[in-house]
Amino acid sequence: MKHQENKNNEIRYAEVLKKFVHPMIEKTDDLNSIEQKYAFGVHVWNATNIKEKHPELFEEAKNQVIEKAENKTEAEALFNEMVEFKQKEFSDYKRVFIDFEILEKIDEGYNVTAASAELK
Fold first, then answer.
1. Sign (positive/negative) of CA torsion 63, 68, 72, 76?
2. Cα 63 to Cα 72: distance, rounded to the nearest angstrom
């Protein structure tokens, strides 16, 4: 996947995050649903990025998602699917997200901002 860069050649992680999570967004989702899906996506993204250095934290993050879900089988399947998507399409992006905000919902679209940091 081509890096999303701004005019200063900095990668725009908000755009990257949107490309990662947007496939889960439905046209009928309200702002709260969109925020929940982004929280899930950020959780998967960060867990995937720490997996190599801290495999135990990856497993802990995965278990947290499954424990909170109403449908545990579905949650685990979606988590695994998102991990595969991250590894396949976004493997060059190593930063972790520390915050995000859905700014507004406009008809069928929305804007997102995100803050990221280098993984130490």
1. negative
2. 10
Q: How many CA atoms lie within 13 A of 29 on its CB side?
A: 20
Structure tokens at 43: 């959780």
pTM reported for the whole predicted model? 0.87
Q: pLDDT of 29-86, one tens digit each?
A: 888 999 999 999 999 999 999 998 999 999 999 999 999 989 999 999 999 999 999 9
